[in-house]
Amino acid sequence: MRTVLVASSKGGAGKSTLATNLAAYFALDGKRTVLVDADRQKSSTHWCEKRAASQTAVLPIDGTRRNWEKAVPSDIERMVIDGAAGAMGDDLEAYLARADAVIVPVNPSMIDLEATVPFLNSLALNPRVKKGKLPVGLVGNRLKPWTSASQQAVSQLKSWPYPVVGELRDTQAYVLMVALGKSVFDYHSEQIRGHQEDWAPILKWLRKTV
To answer: For a Cys-Cys bond, which of 112, 176, 181, 209 suits 107, CB 3.0-4.6 Å?
Structure first.
């Protein structure tokens, strides 16, 4: 079983959006997938519930419970973990121990950028991250590429010691799809294909690690 942890200490960074879309991608790819929801808001769990009748359903696991690992079926091939909001590296220790890769979404605002620095510093203290055995990738999220704010944010992210593995544009499509238990990978319209192309670098990076 290969595992991706989506984590950020900043609320509203887009953790659940990334986690649900990744889980849907794996499920649509034919992988038996669970989504471990460690966030008490339970956005990812609600998404799984709305998708439950689909042939590509994703099993939700309550990651806030003690011994949550015991609820993961033995035949699962992919696990996506939606990390707890506001958590730092120490708080995520149990999830980091299971992860094969960590994705950190960052919004293009000074507040988000500044809040992400101490979070990444806390991740750097993890022995596997420190030794380069647990890859960490940054995803610029809710970007408006035509604005100087987004351009400057991406430029700053690229100066940090972790790779920028994806840049996702700001769109209401994600909000609508989460409400329906869907993802960008469930649709095939020309407009949605543009969003799928945004994900291509993220998926390529994950294929090297997960």
So the answer is: 112
Where are the domains positioned within the chain? 2-204
Separation CA 158–CA 160 (nearest Å): 5
Pair 44, 35: CB distance under 8 Å:
yes
Q: CA–CA separation, 199 vs 117, rounded Å?
A: 24
Instruction: Supply 41's token pair.
Output: 């808001």
Per-residue model confidence (pLDDT) at position 184? 93
| Nearest Cα residue to 206 out of 67, 79, 96, 91 | 79
Low-confidence residues of the chain: pLDDT under 50? none
Amino acid residing at 177? M
pLDDT at 149: 86
Strands, sheet with 2-6, edge to edge from the N-terminal-most edge strand: 59-62, 33-37, 78-82, 2-6, 101-106, 136-143, 164-169
